[in-house]
Specification:
60s Ribosomal Protein L30, Chain: A, four-stranded mixed beta sheet, 15 strands, elongated
Amino acid sequence: MGAEALSGSGGSRPRGKPPRAAGFTKSGKPRPGTGGEGRRKLEGKGPTPPAAKRPGHPAQRRAAGSGASRSGSGADSRPSGSGAPPRPARTQRGAGDAAEFVAGRNAVVESLRASVPAAVLYVGARVQHDERVSEAIKLAADRGVVVLEAGAAELDRLTGGALHQGLALKVRAYNYAHPDDLLARAVDAAQPPLIVALDGVTDPRNLGAIARSAAAFGAHGVVVAPGFGARGVKGKLRAIQYVREHRIPFLGICYGMQLACVEFARNVCELPDAMTSEVDETSVDPVIDFMPDQRNLEMYGGTMRLGTYACTLEEGSQAARAYGTLEISERHRHRYEFNNRYRPIFEEHGMRFTGHHAIGKTRLVEVVELPADMHPWFVATQAHPEFKSRPNRPAPLYREFIGAALAHEERLEGRAGIAEASWTQA
């Protein structure tokens, strides 16, 4: 009696019924997730196969590749017994019907302008249209390129997550040449090769700028335009050094003049840490600075020198010959000035300061030049001559710069004429 009472005291199952086997439900069916038991139990996969027989393993791909090369077939053999069909051979990038995508509004527009062979233009659904989107659609329609609308997720997938800005262009894959072949072609053409190394370029909007910058090395003149801040300073300094050393006509405007002074200080005056305080306030050689005796002058609107200011040019200078007078006025828009403490070392190494704006005892540098024995035409101004330039009255410095560039072209082509003669005399 005691045993029977103990066995039935729980009330969890009827007396006399055998307990449920582990892994089964009340109805006797195999419990999900246990692998089942008896006839319905799942079979194991067995021991782990060797790496060379595991699908997708690097060792398997290497073994398959060596086997395909021995047999002479291009098929990617799969492990025997896998039951999977043979994988077709992978084509090289740029071969066959493979395609690539150009992503980003500027990159797409420039590709269409250059008539890059394209198949489809993808435009993002509900994308905000601007001039670049409208131009891309028009160019695609004119060239018979299919225009399709795609969602943001689809564009992300097509471009591999690149910054597409709602535009992507499907183009034929480019067949990339080996650098050795390109160098051989340059040698055969008896021309010095230009090698552009791109490191970490992730924004497609930079591609057009890179192409234009590379083309500038074959130009007949270079202008370093106005700007602010640290963006692009290193590249501008290298460009100025290149044109100075290779005697290519140069015109620096505002920030272009300041960076021309920084480059000269670093590479000619042997001040390797020279910089403008606008970029590095802790520079040990701030050749461009916000001068202490200028901080409280009324001429500054806030901290900027704005508007028209008079300038006195040095007789016999390139600038004086361009303007035809020694007293000029140009408009300005800048904060920082050339640091006159460095004037002696600059003049010692050949730079000429040929334009000044006088305020009391302070002579602010307005124009810098290199003499003819150092460079044929190297002029930079703190002003903005383009503000007063007109179609029928071009700014004198821009006019003379274009003349110097044309003379440089004629000299390179061996067609020295009147323009070159007047240029070399200058």
